[in-house]
C-alpha cells in the first residue's frame, strides 16, 4: 500500500510533507474492499497544523473526563480527545457569562466591540488552512468546501462588526412624534425607543457547518453586547475550540465567549434552557430537539431563535434553462454529501423536460469524484457516521421497493470505508415514500414529474416544514407568482446556493422561529425599550 501524503504550504510559502498516521490518506484512498478495521488509531492533530496553539487543552487521557472525535473518512481513527463538560460546568460557565455581562454590555462602545469582531475575523482568515484542515478531519467535507465555509463564517463577523455601529444596533433606536400635548396645544414630551442587549445567550450549533453556525450566532450576539456560552456539536467540537482560541487572541474577554464541549448534549442543553440567567437560546438542528428546547425554555420565558429541519423542494418548469437547472440542482443537493438543512430533497420536474433533466443530472453525478476530504480532487466526501449511511440507504431501498427507479448510485462505497455512499438519483418516487416525506441528510435526489404549475405547488407545499425551496423558470410572471405561494422561508430561483450574511435566513411552519443573518439577525439579540420623557 502506497502512503499518500498531504502537501501543505508553510508560512514561508515553501511546501512541506505531512504524513498523518501510518495509514491515514493511504488507507482511505486505496483501501481494498475488505472488512473495516475495528482497531482505533490516534492522529497527532497538532503535528499537521502550522499553528498548533489553535487547539489548546485537548485531553490526553482516555477516561470519563473526555470524549473522542473521529475522522468520518477513516472512522477507526481518533482525531482528538476533547474535555467532557458536565451540567455543573455549564452552570458555572453561565455564571461567568452573567458576571461579565455588565462590563461588556454597559462599558464598551459598539465601535470597540466591532473592532474585536474585525480582528477575530482577520485571525481566522490568517489561519484558514489550519482551520479548514481541522474542519475536514472532523466533519469529512472536502477541503475546498471547508475553506469556503471559513470565508462564509468570517463574513458574519465582518457584517455584524459593520452593523454594530449603525442606528439599528444596540444603543440605537428611534424618536417618535409625541401624540400628547400641553393645555395650550403645544407638544408634550418625547417618545423614544432604544435597543439593548438581551443578556446571556446560549448558542447550540450543529456538526454540518462547524464554523459558520457559530459565527452566524456569536457575531450578532457579541456585536449587540451580549455574552455567549456555546455548545458546539459533539461530532465537530475542534473547529469551535480553534475559534475560541482566536477569539481570546483577538481580545474578546474569556467569559464573554465561552465553549462547553460535551457528548452528553442534554445535560448542557437542559441547563441552558432552564437556567434563569440565560435570556436567549439560539439553536440549529432537528425539529424534534427544537421543540424540546422550546418546551424547556418556557419556564423562564426565554427569547428563541430556532433554525430547524427542512425537506426542500426543487421544481423545474419547462421554460427553464435545463443546463442551468442541473447546475443549481447539483450544488443544492450534493454539497457536503447532501448533509445540509437547505439541501434539495424533493425534485419536481415538469413532464416535458423530465427525461432531459434526469439524463443531464445523471451524467454530472457520474463524474463526481468521491473520496476523503483531504484529497483536493474530492468533490464529495463521506457522510458523518455509518448510522447516517444506513439511514439513507434504508430509505433508498424502501423507495425502490415501492416502485422508484434507481438511475444512478444507490449503493455504499465500501472500498472507501463504511461512511461513503454513492450519490444517487431516484425517479418515479412516491409522495408517500419516506425518502419524499422526511428530510434526508444524504446524497440522494428523489425525483418525480408533474404536469401543471398548480400540481407542483400543491406537492411542494405538502410538508410540515418550510425552510428552503428552489425552482427554475425563465417566465418572470411565474417567478413572482410561484415564489409568493411557495411555503418556505428561503427561496432560490435558478440557483442552488443562496445563503449570505446580508440576507435573512430562517424557515416557516415547523422549520423554526426567527431569522439569522442580515439586520434581522442582530435584532434577535436585542430588546426594545420604550421611554417617555415629559419635558
How would you sum up this structure in a few lines?
This protein has 535 residues and is α/β, with parallel strands linked by helices.
Low-confidence stretches: 1-36
Strand order across the largest sheet = 15-16-17-14-13-19-20
Silhouette: globular
Q: What is the percent of helical residues?
A: 25-40%
Structural class: alpha/beta
Give Rg in angstroms. 24 Å
Instruction: Classify the beta-strand content into a percent band.
Output: 15-25%
How would you characterize this protein structure?
The chain has helices at residues 24-30, 87-106, 110-126, 128-139, 143-164, 212-224, 238-250, 265-274, 287-297, 322-334, 351-366, 386-401, 434-437, 453-460, 476-485, 518-523; strands at residues 6-9, 15-18, 41-42, 66-71, 74-83, 173-176, 190-197, 200-204, 227-231, 257-259, 278-284, 303-307, 312-316, 344-350, 405-408, 424-427, 444-450, 465-466, 468-472, 490-493, 508-509, 512-513, 526-533. With 535 residues, the chain is of the alpha/beta class. It has a 7-stranded mixed sheet, with helices on both faces. Strands 10-9-8-11-12-22 form a 6-stranded mixed sheet, sandwiched between helices. Strands 3-5-4 form a 3-stranded mixed sheet. Helix 7 links the parallel strand 9 (227-231) and strand 10 (257-259). The longest helix has 22 residues, at 143-164. The radius of gyration is 24 Å and the shape is globular. Residues 1-36 have low confidence and may be disordered.
Amino acid at each position: 500500500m502506497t502512503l499518500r501524503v498531504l502537501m501543505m504550504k508553510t508560512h514561508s510559502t515553501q511546501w512541506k510533507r505531512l504524513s498523518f498516521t501510518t495509514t491515514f490518506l493511504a488507507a482511505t484512498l486505496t483501501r481494498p474492499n475488505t472488512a473495516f478495521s475495528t482497531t482505533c488509531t490516534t492522529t497527532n492533530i497538532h503535528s499537521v497544523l502550522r499553528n498548533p496553539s489553535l487547539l489548546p487543552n485537548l485531553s490526553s487521557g482516555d477516561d470519563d473526563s473526555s470524549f473522542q472525535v473521529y475522522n468520518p473518512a477513516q472512522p477507526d481513527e481518533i482525531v482528538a480527545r476533547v474535555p467532557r463538560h458536565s451540567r455543573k460546568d455549564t452552570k458555572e460557565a453561565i455564571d461567568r457569562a452573567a458576571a461579565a455581562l455588565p462590563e461588556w454590555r454597559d462599558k464598551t462602545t459598539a465601535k470597540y466591540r466591532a473592532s474585536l469582531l474585525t480582528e477575530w475575523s482577520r485571525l481566522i482568515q490568517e489561519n484558514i488552512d489550519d482551520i479548514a484542515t481541522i474542519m475536514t478531519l472532523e466533519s469529512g467535507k472536502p477541503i475546498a468546501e471547508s475553506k469556503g465555509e471559513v470565508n462564509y463564517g468570517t463574513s458574519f463577523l465582518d457584517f455584524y462588526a459593520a452593523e454594530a455601529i449603525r442606528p439599528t444596533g444596540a444603543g440605537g433606536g428611534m424618536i417618535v412624534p409625541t401624540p400628547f400635548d400641553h393645555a395650550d396645544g403645544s407638544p408634550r414630551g418625547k417618545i423614544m425607543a432604544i435597543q439593548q442587549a438581551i443578556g446571556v445567550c446560549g448558542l447550540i450549533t450543529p456538526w454540518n457547518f462547524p464554523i459558520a453556525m457559530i459565527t452566524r450566532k456569536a457575531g450578532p450576539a457579541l456585536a449587540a453586547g451580549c455574552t455567549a456560552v456555546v455548545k458546539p456539536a459533539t461530532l465537530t467540537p475542534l473547529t469551535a475550540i480553534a475559534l475560541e482560541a482566536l477569539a481570546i487572541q483577538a481580545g474578546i474577554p474569556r467569559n464573554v465567549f465561552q465553549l462547553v464541549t460535551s457528548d452528553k448534549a442534554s445535560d448542557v442543553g437542559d441547563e441552558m434552557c432552564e437556567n434563569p440567567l440565560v435570556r436567549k437560546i439560539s439553536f440549529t438542528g432537528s425539529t424534534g430537539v427544537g421543540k424540546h428546547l422550546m418546551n424547556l425554555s418556557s419556564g423562564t420565558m426565554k427569547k428563541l431563535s430556532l433554525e430547524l429541519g427542512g425537506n426542500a423542494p426543487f421544481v423545474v418548469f419547462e421554460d427553464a434553462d435545463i443546463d442551468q437547472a442541473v447546475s443549481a440542482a447539483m450544488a443544492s443537493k450534493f454539497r457536503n454529501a447532501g448533509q445540509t438543512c437547505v439541501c434539495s430533497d424533493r425534485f419536481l420536474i415538469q413532464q416535458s423536460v423530465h427525461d432531459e433533466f434526469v439524463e443531464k443530472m445523471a451524467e454530472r453525478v457520474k463524474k463526481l469524484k468521491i473520496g476523503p476530504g483531504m484529497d483536493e480532487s474530492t468533490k464529495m466526501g463521506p457522510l458523518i457516521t455509518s448510522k447516517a449511511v444506513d439511514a439513507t440507504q434504508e430509505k433508498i431501498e424502501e423507495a425502490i421497493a415501492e416502485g422508484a427507479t434507481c438511475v444512478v448510485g444507490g449503493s455504499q462505497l465500501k472500498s472507501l470505508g463504511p461512511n461513503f455512499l454513492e450519490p444517487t438519483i431516484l425517479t418515479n418516487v412516491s409522495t408517500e415514500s419516506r425518502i419524499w416525506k422526511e428530510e434526508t441528510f444524504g446524497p440522494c435526489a428523489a425525483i418525480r414529474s408533474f404536469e401543471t404549475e398548480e400540481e407542483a405547488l400543491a406537492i411542494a407545499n405538502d410538508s410540515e416544514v418550510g425552510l428552503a425551496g428552489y425552482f427554475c423558470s425563465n417566465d418572470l410572471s411565474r417567478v413572482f407568482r410561484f415564489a409568493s405561494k411557495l411555503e418556505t422561508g428561503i427561496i432560490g430561483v435558478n440557483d442552488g446556493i443562496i445563503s449570505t450574511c446580508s440576507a435573512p435566513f430562517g424557515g416557516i411552519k415547523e422549520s423554526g422561529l426567527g431569522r439569522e443573518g442580515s439586520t434581522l439577525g442582530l435584532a434577535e439579540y436585542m430588546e426594545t425599550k420604550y421611554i417617555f420623557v415629559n419635558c
